[in-house]
Design the sequence.
């Protein structure tokens, strides 16, 4: 299982890449392993508001439906439309397949760095 | 809850990267590293190998065996020849289904029943209570391991261990043979809609056969497969799963399995109830035309009125779309709506099975 160094992670297994005032959000390698083959994702639209700790998208794998929680509060400025047609990218390249980009108002206060997240996953 | 049992292939599953879950009291792989869709496609396009050692096996023997079994099941064992296998339902007095099972006929006085793991104790009690004279019942589930080789390459792969002439050539037939020196029951049966075999033998001797089949099929793309794709495969093939499409309370004449209910037989348990119960519901297939997956228990609506529910719903890897088996009122037309996470998704009825079956042996 891969944990990428330059990212921050939520307990619910999303990653955040902070770039200036914006943040890209995706799901971790641990999450995609747990979900199994992803076959659908429903993504919010540009201009939607997301709230730290609240679900912003849901994914359907062969096994189950799961919510994806936002690690930040803010406004969606871009969505990765490619995922609508090829949701399997979440499995194939979890750290490349960002889901939304958000203009950040505030970050969730319990994000972990890569080292902490790796330890956290080991306990799961 | 009792501690889950391990099949004799447990260590092999772990070695091959199996993701272990508890199912029907057994620790079995839901999938391997390859994932459900890859495993599913391997079975449709090449072959896959499953551990199904959790299944239950009963021997029913004696001069009363035919009469006993024919009283218990909806299909007709009197029509069977030695070396034959039939699928059947076993009903309760109300016409609900105690279990679905396979019956293997060795001789007029010797039969093997293969039942669902989750129902072993219930079925044993039920069969025992209905044994007629000169009939014995023995639960040999613990003495029998079972693997299933399923997919279009099955015959070719198995031929590396057992010549084709020694394999059962027709669907729903079996032979008693040796594979790698181990006594086996080998049947041309399965739960995937593909050609394939099921192998029953001493569980302590099954692992070398499992590994040898994987090795024999390596170049053809044969991989170990878990319970996840077993479910998507049987689902696409339109096959019911006990506890989902079938239960003690769903009448046997409402599940689309009329081919194995012989109402012309003079008597079987549940026949009277079925005769006096006109079917109100039916098992049908739907394809979702909106994005999303309708899972089990999701409610089905027709023009706002609740008309049934989903018994199995998943993504069909072969058709690349979400589909579902539903239990709904008879006589409905498309479209219907299925409630999924507070949204109503549109769906159209389509004929079962969801795939063209490729097992016309």
Sequence:
């Amino acid at each position: 299982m891969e944990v990428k160094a330059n990212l921050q992670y939520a307990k619910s297994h999303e990653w955040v890449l902070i770039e200036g005032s914006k943040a890209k959000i995706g799901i971790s390698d641990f999450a995609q392993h747990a979900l199994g083959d992803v076959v659908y994702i429903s993504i919010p639209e540009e201009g939607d508001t997301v709230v730290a700790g609240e679900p912003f998208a849901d994914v359907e794998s062969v096994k189950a439906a799961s919510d994806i929680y936002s690690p930040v509060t803010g406004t969606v400025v871009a969505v990765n439309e490619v995922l609508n047609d090829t949701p399997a990218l979440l499995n194939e390249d979890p750290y490349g397949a960002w889901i939304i980009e958000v203009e950040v108002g505030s970050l969730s206060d319990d994000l972990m760095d890569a080292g902490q997240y790796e330890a956290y996953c080991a306990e799961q | 809850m009792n501690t889950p049992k391990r099949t004799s292939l447990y260590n092999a599953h772990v070695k091959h990267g199996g993701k272990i879950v508890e199912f029907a009291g057994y620790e079995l792989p839901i999938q391997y590293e390859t994932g459900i869709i890859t495993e599913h496609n391997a079975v449709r396009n090449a072959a896959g190998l499953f551990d199904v050692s959790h299944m239950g096996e009963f021997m029913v023997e004696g001069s009363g065996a035919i009469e006993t079994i024919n009283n218990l099941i909806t299909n007709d064992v009197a029509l069977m020849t030695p070396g034959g296998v039939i699928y059947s339902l076993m009903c309760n007095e109300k016409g609900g289904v105690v279990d679905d099972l396979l019956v293997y006929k060795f001789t007029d006085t010797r039969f093997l029943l293969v039942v669902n793991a989750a129902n072993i104790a219930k079925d044993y009690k039920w069969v025992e209570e209905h044994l007629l004279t000169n009939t014995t019942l023995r639960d040999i589930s613990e003495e029998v391991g079972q693997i299933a080789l399923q997919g279009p390459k099955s015959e070719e792969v198995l031929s590396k261990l057992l010549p084709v002439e020694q394999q059962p050539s027709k669907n729903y037939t079996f032979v008693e043979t040796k594979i790698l020196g181990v006594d086996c029951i080998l049947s041309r049966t399965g739960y995937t809609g593909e050609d394939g075999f099921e192998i029953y033998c001493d569980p302590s001797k099954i692992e070398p056969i499992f590994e040898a089949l994987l090795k024999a099929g390596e170049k053809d793309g044969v991989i170990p497969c878990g319970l996840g794709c077993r479910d998507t495969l049987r689902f696409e093939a339109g096959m019911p799963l006990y506890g989902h499409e079938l239960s003690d309370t769903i009448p046997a004449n409402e599940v689309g399995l009329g081919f194995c209910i012989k109402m012309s037989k003079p008597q079987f348990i549940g026949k009277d109830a079925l005769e006096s119960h006109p079917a109100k519901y039916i098992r049908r297939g739907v394809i979702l035309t909106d994005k999303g997956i309708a899972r089990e228990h999701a409610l089905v609506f027709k023009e706002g009125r609740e008309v049934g529910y989903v018994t199995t719903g998943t993504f069909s890897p072969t058709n690349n779309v979400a589909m579902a088996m539903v239990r709904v009122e008879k006589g409905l037309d498309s479209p219907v709506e299925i409630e999924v996470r507070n949204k109503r998704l549109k769906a159209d009825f389509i004929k079962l099975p969801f795939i063209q079956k490729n097992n016309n042996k």
User: Anything to note?
Assistant: The domain at 280-361 of chain B is CATH 2.40.30.110 (Elongation Factor Tu (Ef-tu); domain 3). Residues 206-216 of chain B form the longest helix (11 residues). The interface with chain A takes residues 30-31, 35-37, 228, 232, 291-293, 295, 314-315, 317, 322, 341 of chain B (CB under 8 Å).
